[in-house]
Amino acid sequence: MNDKIFVNGVSAKGFHGVLERERSRGQKFVVDVELAMNLKKLNDDLSKTVNYAEVVEIINGHITGKPVLLIESLAENIGKDILRKYKKVSNIVVRVHKPKAPIAFNFKDIVVQVEIKR
Fold it and tell me: What whole-number distance in Å separates Cα of residue 23 and Cα of residue 27?
């Protein structure tokens, strides 16, 4: 299946991380999702596809919600929730960006990607 919906750059402050200072101060997280599903013959009917606003709400809820230690867990939780809500999605790729990870070297971004298939 080549049909995909992309929701990119959903950002919010979250309190995820292994270090205590990450969990107490919080930091910006950015999430991208790629949803694979059949986008043909929708007949201009929203109920036959994915509501982007609801997807963004799910993502934001996980970023700002209950903290997890690993962004790998954050990505997996987001993916599972979206798949649970949208049965039409056959495959999801979730990327979580942690641009301000507490690393003592110069870097542009830390990104974790998970792919979940039905």
Answer: 9
Q: Which of 40, 98, 100, 108 is catalytic?
A: 98
Low-confidence ranges of the chain (pLDDT < 50): none
Q: Is 41 a catalytic residue?
A: no
Query: What is the C-alpha separation between 118 and 101, in angstroms, rounded?
Result: 31
Question: pTM here?
Answer: 0.94
Angle among Cα 72, 94, 66 to the nearest 5 degrees reads 50
Q: Delimit the domains of the chain by residue range.
A: 4-117
Fold exhibited by the domain 4-117: GTP Cyclohydrolase I, domain 2 (3.30.1130)
